[in-house]
Design a protein that fits this description.
alpha+beta; seven-stranded antiparallel β-sheet; 19 helices; 21 strands; globular; GGT_ssub_C; hydrolase; hydrolase activity; transferase; leukotriene C4 gamma-glutamyl transferase activity
């Protein structure tokens, strides 16, 4: 049912991009060019994804880095494969240890919220299982970008400046390497200003030459350990050496005749599946755009509070995935959606600052990959001389021992980053993702419903003005969100707040394949410096 004319008149600003032999979509044109060049050298979609991901650590350090986590969904030979490369808490990370240091909640900066980074291991694992080209060749373009420098793009400058201001508030010596690496001239690089990092290039070279072993067992792990010890961190080289990414089976729900796939917990993709599952059980939406928006917002809210209440490392979760996606449970949650906005509460299903990229090749392989520092540059901790900025994913842990997501040694925390994938009749339709912290599941719901319910093409789906639930009945909307819809939602009890900063509403990429012709159709995010490049 298409209601974009009533819904968002701006949804068709740009046309989708088409290609046949391959496609790469991501938030930085230089990184997209790296991916396309790998395809043209004979690499497959997995090779292109790895090369693009490595390049993004250089050209978008404001959102990800060598010290990031990663997740991926890969379509190869008619089957989906999931990779969870999020790292666990260090073995020394206990609630008692944090409280002894004077913390009642997890800090967001410094060494304490740093968990084991998984991104380098993800690249190596993907290459070993599915890649065609030598691993070192895939990282070579990123190494060149770091060594020679690149001109900073406008949106990246904005996020870089925000990080500069944030870290400037700290006077601890541990933050000095961040300024030495990312603000060597005493300011965040301006748009068009060249930024380079010799240390970043050397670290990528060591990772390339050792298939990431240098990061987890070699000189880089020694440097990370020494820096952590010097600045009161809990991460040790033993934590790094023990790490292995995990191959997992993606999970799904049926929506509008398609299967929507996400990585299972500790990722938050199950929130997307719950929301879409509720919407599917509510039946046809009809032609009223206000009712359509209201339903989608309410379903997302109800799913999100379930996620906050239950999602953590899968081994520590109380409800199972099957219980959270159970038909009767989703029907009961959907039944809570009425005419007026509700202040959502979680149910009981128990019976008794990220980068995203999508790639596709001519052989039918497709990749949905996401990697992240969590918030901006992450912890603000940069290992001197290496260019390695460490994520702050441990910030999501709770120090309440009764909370499902309570901190524990070796435990993986609730994770916001989620790659998505769509199939139909056991055939790949394509990868999609929307980065941006807690916006990600909401962005997934919005682009999937736009494409499969509103019949919008990928670019139009990404161009649509977005909404974001923040708490209770509060819904933030973008500045160009139609006033008549905002007022109508307010009459239904939603507290609507217009927000000028569009970056906070996520940044997505989509690639879809026509099952009959093999033609690729892609869209890229208008809220960032993104590019979708066909071949």
């Amino acid at each position: 049912m298409q209601h974009d004319a009533l819904y968002y008149p701006s949804a068709s600003r740009r046309m989708a991009t088409f290609g046949k032999r391959g496609m790469v979509a991501t938030s930085q044109p230089l990184a997209a060019q790296v991916g396309i060049s790998i395809l043209q050298q004979g690499g497959n979609a997995i090779d292109a994804a790895i090369a693009t991901a490595a390049a993004l650590t250089v050209v978008e350090p404001t959102s990800n880095g060598i010290g990031s986590d990663a997740f991926a969904i890969v379509w190869v030979d008619g089957k989906l494969h999931g990779l969870n490369a999020s790292g666990p808490a260090p073995q020394a990370a206990t609630i008692e240890a944090l409280k002894a240091l004077g913390h009642d909640t997890m800090p967001n900066h410094g060494m304490l919220p740093v968990t084991v980074p998984g991104a380098p291991a993800a690249w190596a694992a993907l290459s070993e299982r599915f890649g065609k080209l030598p691993f070192a060749e895939l990282l070579a373009p990123a190494i060149s970008l770091a060594d020679e420098g690149f001109p900073v793009s406008p949106v990246i400058h904005q996020m870089w400046k925000e990080a500069f201001n944030t870290y400037s508030a700290y006077d601890e010596a541990s933050f000095k390497p961040w300024f030495d690496t990312f603000a060597p001239k005493g300011h965040a690089p301006k748009p068009g200003e060249l930024w380079r990092s010799e240390g970043h290039a050397k670290s990528l070279k060591a990772i390339a030459d050792t298939r990431a072993k240098a990061f987890y067992e070699g000189d880089l792990s020694e440097a990370i350990d020494a820096f952590s010890r010097e600045h009161g961190g809990l991460l040790r080289k033993e934590d790094l050496a023990a790490y292995q990414p995990e191959w997992v089976d993606p999970i799904s729900v049926r929506y509008k005749g398609h299967d929507i796939w996400e990585i299972p917990p500790n990722g938050s993709g199950i929130i997307v599946l719950q929301a879409l599952g509720m919407l599917e059980r509510l039946g046809e939406e009809g032609r009223d755009p206000v009712e359509t928006l209201h339903r989608r917002i309410e379903a997302t809210k109800l799913a999100y509070v379930d996620g906050f209440a239950h999602v953590t490392d899968l081994d520590a979760m109380r409800p199972t995935i099957d219980q959270m996606l159970d038909d009767d449970y989703l029907k009961s949650r959907a039944a809570m959606i009425g005419e007026q906005a509700v202040d959502p509460i979680h149910g009981n299903p128990i019976k008794g600052g990220t980068v995203y990229l999508a790639t596709a090749d001519n052989d039918g392989n497709m990749v949905s990959l996401i990697q992240s520092n969590f918030k901006g540059f992450g912890s603000g901790m940069v290992v001197p001389g290496t260019g390695i900025s460490l994520q702050n994913r441990g910030w999501s842990f709770s120090l309440d021992p009764q909370h499902p997501n309570a901190l524990a040694p070796g435990k993986r925390t609730y994770h916001t980053i989620i790659p998505g994938f769509i199939t139909k009749d056991n055939q790949a339709v394509g990868p999609f993702g929307v980065m941006g912290g807690y916006m990600q599941p909401q962005g997934h719901v919005q682009v999937v419903t736009a494409m499969l319910e509103d019949q919008l093409n990928p670019q139009a789906a990404l161009d649509m003005p977005r909404w974001k639930w923040t708490k209770g009945k509060t819904i933030e909307v973008e500045a160009d969100f139609p006033n008549h819809l905002a007022l109508a939602l307010a009459r239904r009890g939603h507290d609507i707040v217009k927000v000028a900063d569009s970056i906070s509403f996520g940044r997505g990429q989509i690639i879809l394949r026509d099952p009959d012709t093999g033609v690729l159709q892609g869209g890229t995010e208008p809220r960032t410096d993104g590019a979708v490049l066909p071949w």
